[in-house]
Specification:
single chain, D-amino Acid Aminotransferase, Chain A, domain 1, D-amino Acid Aminotransferase, Chain A, domain 2, 17 strands, binds pyridoxal-5'-phosphate
Amino acid sequence: MDWKNLGFGYVKTDYRYVSNYKDGKWDEGILTTDEKVVLNESAGVLQYAQTCFEGLKAYKTVDGRVVCFRPDLNAQRMIQSAQRLEMPPFPAERFLEAVKSVVKKNIESVPPYGSGASLYIRPYMFGTNPVMGVKPADEYQFRIFVSPVGPYFKGGAKPITLRIPDFDRAAPLGTGHVKAGLNYAMSLHAIVDAHKQGYNENMYLDSATRTKIEETGGANIIFVTKDNKVVTPKSSTILPSITRRSLMYVAQKYLGLEVEERIIYKEELNEMKECALCGTAAVLSPVGKVNDHGKEIVFPSGMEKAGEITQKLYDTLTGIQLGRIEAPEGWIMEIK
Ligand SMILES: *Cc1c(COP(=O)(O)O)cnc(C)c1O
């Protein structure tokens, strides 16, 4: 395997985990080599998009262990997503056991330390039995597959450009706070359009007033203010990113910075020193500029490299994930 040149794409690995829900309960689950899912033509997921997912990674550490980063938070978040979509939650302890077993069974696919690559883990769940009228399915499948991945943005630490789109991501009382496939389906047109116009991603505003900054299609946003405070938007329609919550902790406890989760108005973009996207896939991606309908906001950190604090946050968080820096209690689950 050419670990250093891996992109962010699906690579088939040997084993995946499957558990089925029927007659009100989850079965014991199996590991299988069969990557195919065969469904009835009227399955709930196909008709009404009844599906949610998670994303986390396994890393090879500097001392040769294989670890996952805060998987308990993915288990919890998937329960919340399932509940919002009227799906039966997959129990958190079973989620963690399933993650462990599927990583262990594909241990040869965990990229080596120092390659910059990692093993992406994708748990997901969907309605399987036929539905016609609009109602939740009665039967579900929970699966986890893994795939070795390289960096999400090919440019690595090169700053990216966002635009403020004329599309909304999440309604005030909608599903923006859960990891539902439907949130991504409706963002595809906006991202294709952004790419056509030469931007890497969309910076969504709150749909009620279109004055406050929310997030991008698949990553939360953090800013550094001119007085070195790390700030992130507070909103009930943002997906609660585990990376973002971890970075805010790292900023405060490891770097001694002031942090704040608060409403951030679009008008404040001019006053920010640094900006970055955060999520499991990209970890932390520096943003160089934002285009707001032709008006360009260039952050002082510029388009050449990540801002100083963004870089420190990135180094500290990846240091914790790769075992170079001591992790807070409970952040690392070893696979053994
Ligand atoms: C998954 C996701 C994120 C990132 O969350 P992490 O837990 O950090 O991976 C951010 N925004 C959206 C919309 C997401 O779906």
